[in-house]
């Protein structure tokens, strides 16, 4: 039986300030780095060693993966990065904190966004520095695929092709796979693997720094799942 390890990156400096982060490439906080190291220790204590790992193009996930694999002394294993594992793009909310958001858009609108699956946040324009086309790391991505602000549904629709094309083939080979990513991109994988509805997935919250282990059986059905720690 092979394992899929889903790990949300440790606390970032904007998580600490309660700011919408999205595709903003902020670093982990010191606490976030400790969370990542702890996740590595937990995997080691259960003798769970990834054969291969995947992250987004954002440093908070990339460094989380590094610190985990350093704890496991497995830095030599193959590691792949894919923009499609990035966090949900929060559009014009990126950078705002909780107070600024409710002051600018009102508590009612926040409540709607919070409970929605297919509602997009305010979009950023093509000239806005938060529009990813201005970032060199996305130069290889067709511009029409780059978001101005995503609903959770949009995020699901771009994560799943990454799963199908790159992660699933490794799972079918029986590999133990680590995906170090973000709250909403991991929700997309969990929604698909557990066959959850939009109403169900909006209630799923993934804690930072705690490895979620999914034991996969024949045709990759989820036989068992549990958090370490
Ligand atoms: C930066 C920040 C603003 C608001 C909050 S909250 O306490 O109101 N909780 C909250 C708010 C939201 C969300 C949320 O999950 C949440 O707990 C969202 O998922 C969301 C998605 C797309 C646009 C807006 C939101 C959103 O405002 C938390 C953090």
CATH architecture type: 3-Layer(aba) Sandwich
- Uncertain runs are none
CATH topology: the name is Rossmann fold
Distance between the termini: 22 Å
Round the Cα radius of gyration to an integer and report it: 17 Å
The assigned structural class equals: alpha/beta
- Counted up, domains total 1
Could you estimate the helical fraction of the residues in percent? 25-40%
What's the order of the H and E elements?
EHHEHEHHHEHHEE
CATH 4th-level superfamily: Phosphoglycerate mutase-like
Largest sheet: 6 strands, mixed
Q: Give the total of beta strands.
A: 6
The global form is globular
**Distinct ligands:** the ligand Cc1ccc(S(=O)(=O)Nc2cc3c(c(O)c2O)C(=O)c2ccccc2C3=O)cc1
Mean pLDDT: 97
**How many helices?**
8
Strand order in space, largest sheet: 3-2-4-1-5-6
Name the CATH class: Alpha Beta
How would you characterize this protein structure?
With 229 residues, the chain is of the alpha/beta class. The protein has a single domain (9-31, 45-51, 76-227), classed as Phosphoglycerate mutase-like (Rossmann fold, 3-Layer(aba) Sandwich). It has helices at residues 13-16, 30-45, 59-71, 98-105, 107-115, 152-172, 183-193, 198-201, and strands spanning 2-8, 52-55, 79-81, 177-181, 212-216, 222-227. It has a 6-stranded mixed beta sheet. The longest helix is centred in the last third of the chain and has 21 residues, at 152-172. It starts with a strand and ends with a strand. The mean pLDDT is 97. The structure holds the ligand Cc1ccc(S(=O)(=O)Nc2cc3c(c(O)c2O)C(=O)c2ccccc2C3=O)cc1.
